[in-house]
Amino acid sequence: MLRHLLPLAVGLCVAASSLPAAQTQTRDQMVLSDRDNVLGGGKWIYNDLAKGLDEAQRAGKPLLVVLRCVP
Amino acid sequence: MEQFVRVRVVQGNALDLSLFQFDTDLTFAAFFLNADRTVYGRFGTRSEQKRADKEITMDGFREALTGALELHRDYPANKSALQGKQPLPVKFKTPEQYPGLSGKYTATLNLSTGKVASSCIHCHQVGEAQRKLFRADNQPIPDEVLHPWPVPDVVGLSFDPKTKAKLAGVAAGSAAEKAGFKAGDELISLEGQPLLSIADVQWVLHQAKVPATLKAAVRREGGPLDLTLQLDKFWRRNSEISWRPTTWDLRRMALGGLVLKELDATTRSQLGLPDTALALRVDYVGQYGEHAAGKKAGFKKEDILVNCDDMTQRMTESDLLRNLLQKRMAGSRVPVTVLRGSEKLTLELPIQ
Is residue B136 scored above 60 in pLDDT? Predict the structure, then answer.
């Protein structure tokens, strides 16, 4: 469950405050590590709305799309 | 969360603006959708530069998710109630189609190290591109573009961010108080649109005309209540924009890169400036490119603007930006009187 929530929780936390660990990374590194985290978790679709819509149609589920400015 | 298909989007590049219409000054926003692209609701609100968590909580997000699932269960029977939540037609379907962004960005990020951030269209660039369209056409930037996505506090509604849309307070003397809203009220719908979040309230306000009459369905002490919110011709102008990233570019256009703050009461009193008088202190002077136009014109940090383009009444930086951007086009020069220590100087502000 925690793994499912990770990208969202990171998004909310970073939106709400500055993370000291994130400050040590360059903007590029932050985007790339965010991408690795999301893809590695396997529970979120990364930057592919069409895939999300297809999956929602197939599964009969609603879609949650999080727009997050990482850098 | 498992009841949703989850998509994370980290770039403005190729973002479908015919679907994703939100406050582009945010760094975090969420949409709840049906697979047929029907919008159930939006989430994500901000009103200050430093306190990004003021209107965003995990509790509030959980409430919004639960509400979205309820709407999904009732869909499509509730389709007509959702009609007002749907995006409006757009001139440019993706950010990179805007004149200010075309040719500079592609539809995908360059994931090579050193190229990622510079290849990314940031959401706030969409707002900047919209405003530049008016500037390029020598047109005043209208209120609804200068003051987008008004927070509900503008009309006197203060929401508890841990809920979908429950009122934590109602400002005395506000339009909301005059309409009969009370702390503790739960807004169920506004203009017939079911509400999942403060962002959903903002969507209604964002689309509202001036003046406006907005119908609200409220639950008070367990019972239903209908209220009507009457908004005057200038209600939108109470929306503070100084925190917005896009205001940086407005400062370039109208203030030559100056950042202005209202003078504190003590200094105002010491200088003998009445409460009703213009008194905006230069808090920052831009240093580079067009943001240095104020510096080149002779403005300095701690100067106090007491007359700008013959305006001497008290106003905020947001008010001054709006006045200049609606009255003065690029290329004009605005006379400004500033106090600098014991001196009173007349300078010219270049409008860009």
Answer: yes
Is some CB atom of chain A closer than 8 A to the CB atom of B82?
Answer: no
From the list B120, B129, B152, B104, the residue with the least C-alpha distance to B13 is B120
**pLDDT score at B51:** 82
| Beta strand pairing call for B167-170 and B186-190 | unpaired
Residue A68, pLDDT score: 92
Q: What does the domain layout of chain A look like in residue ranges?
A: 2-59
Mutation test of the interface with chain A: which of B3, B4, B8, choosing the one with the most A Cβ atoms within 10 A?
Answer: B8
The interface residues of chain B toward chain A in range 266-325, judged by CB-CB distance below 8 A, are: none
Q: Which domains does chain B have, with CATH numbers?
A: 247-350 (2.30.42.10)
The Cα B5–Cα B98 span in angstroms is 30
ipTM above 0.90, yes or no: yes
* Residue type present at position B305: L
pTM for the model stands at 0.92
Q: Which of B5, B16, B44 sits opposite A63 (nearest CB)?
A: B5
The runs of H, that is alpha helices, within B75-210 are 79-82, 116-119, 123-136, 143-146, 175-179, 198-207
CB burial of residue B308 (10 Å; 0-12, 13-18, 19+): buried
Q: Tell me the chain B residues in contact with residue A64 when contact means C-beta distances shorter than 8 Å.
A: 1, 4-7, 30-33, 65, 68
Cα separations (Å) of B258 from B135, B295, B312, B325, B332? Answer: 19, 8, 18, 14, 17
Distance of alpha carbon A11 from alpha carbon B7, whole angstroms: 13
Q: How far is A24 from chain B (nearest CA, A)?
A: 16
- Say whether B9 and A66 touch across the interface (CB within 8 A): yes
pLDDT, one tens digit per residue, over A9-46 is: 555 544 544 444 445 788 888 888 899 998 998 899 99
- Cβ contacts of residue B172 below 8 Å, gap of 6+? none
pLDDT reported for residue B111:
85
